Amino acid sequence: MQVQHAISSNNWQAVGQYDGENGLNEKTLSALQKLSDKFASGTVDYESYQGSYEKALSLYCQPNNAYIYGVKRQPYPYACNRYSHGWAFYQDWLSGRHSQAASIF
User: Fold this and answer.
1) What is the pLDDT of residue 62?
2) Cα–Cα dist 81/27, whole Å
3) Is the dihedral of CA 95, 64, 83, 13 positive or negative?
4) Which of 12, 37, 50, 85 has its CA 20 to 30 A from that of 100?
5) Among 53, 57, 59, CA closest to 15
């Protein structure tokens, strides 16, 4: 698993990037520390995690992606609600989810 390898390597930037690129909710320091205790040894670099998470999530949550995520029947990424365009993102995702194109997935 890609994330487990990043954690065991103490590569918190890669963990944040993975979470953001997949529209996952941001992990807390406490949650990351539990992962570190389980799979790695060392200190969590929360700043690296947050920086790469924010950058990756902002790309993932671009409004032009929402419709495609809906068509592909991907779960709605609630993490995208943090942006000012969150409601429009949701509406586009919903449109994709109910489109004729979504019926082929």
Assistant:
1) 94
2) 16
3) positive
4) 85
5) 53
- Sequence-ordered list of residues with C-beta below 8 angstroms from that of 22, at least 6 positions apart, any chain: 60
**4 sits in which H/E element:** helix 2-8
Residue 105 confidence (pLDDT) = 59
Q: In the chain, which residues have pLDDT < 70?
A: 1, 102-105
Q: Around Cβ 56, how many Cβ atoms within 10 Å? A: 20
Residue 57: closest CA among 23, 9, 13, 92: 23
Q: Can you give the C-alpha Rg of the chain in angstroms? A: 16
The whole-number pLDDT of residue 103 equals: 67
Query: In this predicted structure, what is the pLDDT of residue 2?
Result: 85
Question: Quick one: pLDDT at residue 70?
Answer: 95
Sequence-separated (6 or more) residues with CB below 8 Å from residue 55: 17, 20
